[in-house]
Write a structure and sequence with these properties.
By secondary structure, this protein is mostly helical. It has one domain. It has two helices and no strands. The longest helix has 39 residues. The chain starts with a helix and ends with a helix.
């Protein structure tokens, strides 16, 4: 079974395709949550720096 056969089997088997979609969407959600957390921390640091410079 080659790489192409394995890849197409992920698409054609409903269970495997559901698993691939679930893992991909979970990974995307974790990435987005991580990005929002970093943005929130950066905004808090900027606010603290502005308040500290007064």
């Amino acid at each position: 079974m080659g790489v192409i056969d394995f890849t197409t089997s992920l698409w054609r088997d409903p269970y495997r395709w559901s698993l691939v979609k679930s893992v991909a969407l979970f990974s995307l959600a974790v990435f987005i949550a991580h990005e929002f957390e970093a943005a929130e921390l950066e905004a808090a640091a900027e606010t603290a720096a502005k308040l500290g410079s007064r």
